[in-house]
Amino acid sequence: MTILMEEGSRKRRHGRKRRLYGFILSLLLVTVWILVIWSMSKQSYQQQTIQPWLHQLSEKVKIGFALPDVQFTYGEHDYSLRQRPYDFTEFIFRKSAHLFVYAVLAVLAYGGLRYRKMRTVTCIAASLVVVAIIASIDEYIQQFSPNRTSSIRDIGVDLIGGCCGIAIYVMTKAVIRKLRSRGHSSS
After folding, report:
1. What are the tens digits of pLDDT across the range 94-112?
2. Which of 11, 13, 69, 167 is most buried, by the most CB atoms less than 10 A from its CB?
3. Residue-range domain boundaries for the chain
4. Mean pLDDT of the chain
5. Max CA separation in the chain (angstroms)
């Protein structure tokens, strides 16, 4: 009986250590990712633009059809696929990058908080608060970068990215768990 109790105690200590190391590793990854985000915020528009690459690509690839007339306004800027396709494409690329970068941040924060054995809803809320804070600081930093604009709309885009990232992560884990349980039950 005493041996079983000692073994259970050892497993609990090992589990606590594993969770602590996982949490510390997650904090480190979150910190590194935040530094990556902020280093991109400090870059000027000219350092980040993909338009020269788009121009080179368009010289190599000829589109054999007319572009649709997709238009919208974001902030003070009008975007038109037919009239200014390079601006339009770069805008879509930049906003997609916002979604991706903040989806990764949210997943890293969420995963780290899950090591702390917190409730799922609490982890999601805390992760989105981290996304909102980092996105706000990111937008603040951008206003000091040449030819960059700071927009509260981008914080909304970043939060959408965070929500999508967590949703994809949670759904993927659920599918994997279900597939594993099927594999164990069929064997």
Report:
1. 999 999 999 999 999 999 9
2. 167
3. 2-43+95-186
4. 87
5. 79
- The predicted model scores a pTM of 0.83
CA dist 180 and 53 (Å) reads 44
Which SS3 state, helix, strand or coil, does residue 78 take?
Answer: strand
Residue 145's SS3 state is coil
- Per-residue tokens: 33: 């990712």
CB neighbour list of residue 80: distance below 8 Å, 6 or more residues apart: 69, 70, 71, 88
Length of the chain: 187
Spatial separation of the C-alpha atoms in residues 117 and 145, rounded to whole Å:
40
DSSP for 16-76 reads: HHHHHHHHHHHHHHHHHHHHHHHHHHTS-HHHH--HHHHHHHHHHS---SPPP--EEEETT
Q: For residue 17, what pLDDT is reported?
A: 84
Residue 17 identity (one-letter amino acid): K
